[in-house]
Amino acid sequence: MSGSGAPGPGAAPCRFAHYFVLCGIDAESGLEPDELAVLYKWLEADLHGKSSGTADKTSGENFDQSPLRRTFKSKVLAHYPQNIEWNPYQDAVNMLCMPKGLSFRTQADNRDPQLHSFIITREDGSRTYGFVLTFYEEVTSKQICTAMQTLYQMHNAEQYSSVCASSSCSMDSLASSIDEGDATSLAKLQRYNSYDISRDTLYVSKCICLITPLPFMQACKKFLVQLYKAVTSQQPPPLPLESYIHNILYEVPLPPPGRSLKFYGVYEPIICQRPGPNELPLSDYPLREVFELLGLENLVQVFTCVLLEMQILLYSQDYQRLMTVAEGITTLLFPFQWQHVYVPILPASLLHFLDAPVPYLMGLQSKEGTDRSKLELPQEANLCFVDIDNHFIELPEEFPQFPNKLEFIQEISEVLLQFGIPPEGNLHCSDSATKLKNLVLSDLVNDKKNGNISANALNMYELLKGNETIARLQALAKRTGVTMEKMTITAPLVEKEKDGKVPCEEVELRDYKLNVQLREVFANRFTQMFADYEAFVIQAAPDMESWLTNREQMQNFDKASFLSDQPEPYLPFLSHFIETQMFATFIDNKIISQWEEKDPFLRVFDSRIEKIRLYNVRAPALRTSNYQKCSTLKEAAQSIEQRLMKIDHTAIHPHLLDMKIGQGKYEQGFFPKLQSDVLATGPTNNNRWASRSTTAQRRKDRLRQHSEHIGLDNDLREKYMQEARSLGKNLRQPKLSDLSPAVIAQTNWKFVEGLLKECRMKTKRMLVEKMGHEAVELGHGEANITGLEENTLIASLCDLLERIWSHGLQVKQGKSALWSHLLQYQEREEKQEHSAESPVAVGTERRKSDTGITLPTLRVSLIQDMRHVQNMSEIKTDVGRARAWIRLSLEKKLLSQHLKQLLSNQALAKKLYKRYAFLRCEEEREQFLYHLLSLNAVDYFCFTSVFTTIMIPYRSVIIPIKKLSNAITTSNPWICVSGELGDTGVMQIPKNHLEMTFECQNLGKLTTVQIGHDNSGLLAKWLVDCVMVRNEITGHTYKFPCGRWLGKGVDDGSLERILIGELVSSTSDEELGKQCRTPPQQKSPTTARRLSITSLTGKNTKPNAGQIQEGIGEAVNNIVKHFHKPEKERGSLTILLCGENGLVAALEQVFHHGFKSARIFHKNVFIWDFIEKAVAYFETSDQIGDNEEALLLQRSSCKTFCHYVNAINTAPRNIGKDGKFQILVCLGTRDHLLSQWIPLLAECPPITRMYEENALLRDRMTVNSLIRVLQTLQDFNIILEGSLIKGVDV
């Protein structure tokens, strides 16, 4: 846009306006129906499954179809200048000036002029603004009037026959037509909806438009209104209109940053101002209107959806409202910028854009009388729908709240109340009839305004007193501390202006002040939240070239560290927000600023952070969630006021041009035909202009600042925008060009490529995070990921899948496209199942032990997984079901396989999707499934950990060692399974069965199994190899190794044992089809212990002293590491204490070292025997100590030791000696007593009898180092799982 050389003062980048455009009817070509609008109606009828013929006959729609209500083709009649190389003229202007095409009126209709604006976003993200005034001009062409009369005669004949035909159900049609706010009887229909050439005057719409580089809305509006007045006033304007248009196009400069400018309209001067380099960027749309239209609570919710880059659809009858809300909300994003599709006014012909599987912010014009329920949207899983006229929003199902939302709302409402604006919005802004239809039906039928009540005709507040919306808003107002009783809802300021009570400038100044103060409050939130963002930016590249080349592989922000620094309540929002494109672009801009000039938004934001640091010197690491209000409101308002009161620059007055005499004759009510030669080019001599505005040096500064402010110069920036910004983004902005099938196909192809790229990046990110390479490098624990971040990534994967499934849908059914596809697949499969068994992938879950007892195969079935989700009563919506199904498939490592199976039904895919849809692009679909397959490399618990309250069926199998023991015991065995979320309680195992199924509330990851029996019957002794337990929904199988006897008089005499579980890894993809055996059984700690105690064959190698000490160090170190991880990342402490290499096993090795002959008179001796001997000694003898203090300490340690051992011995459980030792170690660790007990045991006399000379426990140095190691656990608050110490009361 901006040229490489510095253009002269009159050159386009520095001009206030770039183009003046005139659109209207082309008298030559006559009445052409707007093909695009007709196509749109036909598509709409097709969507509802009607033929286009019946579409106009359905009740409520028929009146719309009268010729005066139809749309006809408009045309650009003229635009000046023809083209500017900096900002080429766009063909889409006609479509955006008259989004609905031409409209006709008669003298009986309302013909007030209407102002709206639009925005054109180029593919590089730069923007141009258009401001349009639409007015009505009398039709002078006889030919067009005759054509209209003919259309009416045809229409009325058709109407009459249809009304007669439907009179049988006239009551229904009457009710519905009142509902639609339309006139009811045929007589009225003909009176209001007719055109008679002899009686009526026909008017047609025409529009004048200014296209500008910056959004000076107020100034453009005033200029266009004055032009319009000049056309309609009885006196001709002081100068020909060409003079004013020429003046604004070529002689009015842009005000320099931080300055104000006065230029001249037809009747009075117009003032505009521009913020300085360190102020918030220019925004001229009145935020007052946005808050009045939406209400504060709604606005904050929509704002949050925009920040999280959801799909936002604005819906209103009024184009200007769409634009005001869209621009208002995007303005509040500072310092971030919306990075995706942005079309605040979507022309009817571009409705297929709503199919875009990308985040978008679009505005759709609602037709009078149609309500939300009739609007068919391609995808709604992630949609935020904003019905502006009805003050109503629909939000996506799951999204986090904005941090400190209540305090934030409170602060904004204080600003609003200072300006007399009720925070709940002005409900009387919503003049749409649907809101009021039940209240004053009789008035509505008679008011001839088609149900639109004028703003001050009724006391709205009285009218709506009983309304539930008001009641809700009142409750909200009370909650946020705003009293509503005293509040009078004032008529909008515009009304006052008409009465002339308030000078226009004053109203405008108030709007400017309110705008800047509201924006300051929003900007201040981000300044507080991201005050330390710079510390986490990763500057990895030495120069710009290498950064651009490796952009895709690089992490640009240390997300994990940033989140770990934030206050807990902020996390749900921030973890989502830092994944967005707008945040990534913001950080990219920061990195790029080391090589080139800073992005203007970034410059302003950074200077504010500097300011915060100067004012309150807080430690950057200390993040609090204390709410800090904005302190710069007064200054911001003052700087604007000063600029508007003291004008810095004045532009040249409009003047007579060198025009041909006799052309452009003034005719009241008609816009003259302009002389194009005088408007096509600017003045040749710019001296007047240059000398008047500023010196050459100032001009250079202005140009520089201007290019910064629009940010459009510099080839590097261009290259950066193309390359870096296209990352992770599917399509920055669709072209608003002609709609040939080729263009639509190309747009869709871009979508397909973008979706694939996004899928690749998301899966890669999920893998990297989960495997945690970066996390390890950055010192964040081992290969782990915060539950929060994992959840965010999975939620964004769910969102991506929904977007892929809703791309190119033929007909939409339900809110979730994926779930609707699954349901149709299920229906087809179940039909086939009745006729034949459907093919089922072979289960990967067959577990087989040496004994031949197996866990039966869990069949892999897409339909079965759907049924599991359908049975979950907690989930109420289709979007929720689709998400649960994705989570379940991901946890089972079947997501790619399931989706492949779903898409293998090509007939169904063809029925549901258009040819261009992503799911019907063979190659891309294969790549997409391949990317999803890569997620099988890691374990997710994203289903188990989210749906914590559902009932889950489990299956357990007890596997005995048959060679050495009987398979079935005669006693009554029982089992109790515990997990991170709870336990099953004791369950009796049916007699003579080794397998059982049971259902209970989700246990989470399984941790321990308690197994035991009552020792009854002849064959009570039982040697159990292991217990297997499987979650029948997720397929996760846990193995609980035992390898010990259960029975009196065998092994350590235990009748119950606590077994520690380990997840059995599922088989790799190569083996997917094969039946697979359990991986070779790992030696469980208990097995090793049993052998080292009882077998004297000496075959198994005992660990030496060095290895034992190393084992203790390792075990303690693991526990320390566990507590240094963030809480959400910690694994199971039970495994670290009692698992294979846990603390209990390591201490057992210490106690076994040098233990004297394990058999005395062929009776096994256990460590517990030594512990009991020590207790007996402590209880009978009085210790002799060196000094009083040591003696007291020793006595209390002895006392607690004896108390703990006795409590374990007297517990009402049949635990064996090794089990008791395990409980003692666990309790000693929990209560930080181990390091006091070890020296007592090392010095008590029984040790000399039971241990050899070289035993570790008899070596003073070893004992001291053991004590030191155990003391490192003193600082941690250790909480033991209930199953480990059940029944032991200390």
From TrEMBL:
Main location: membrane
Keyword annotations of the record: Guanine-nucleotide releasing factor, Membrane, Phosphoprotein, Repeat
Domain UDENN as annotated: residue spans: 56-597
Domain PLAT, first and last residues per copy: 952-1060
Origin: domain of life: Eukaryota
UniProt-annotated stretches for the region Disordered: 682-704, 830-849
Domain RUN: residue ranges: 788-948, 1134-1283
Family affiliation: Belongs to the RAB6IP1 family.
Protein's name in the database: DENN domain-containing protein 5B
Organism listed in the record: Grus japonensis
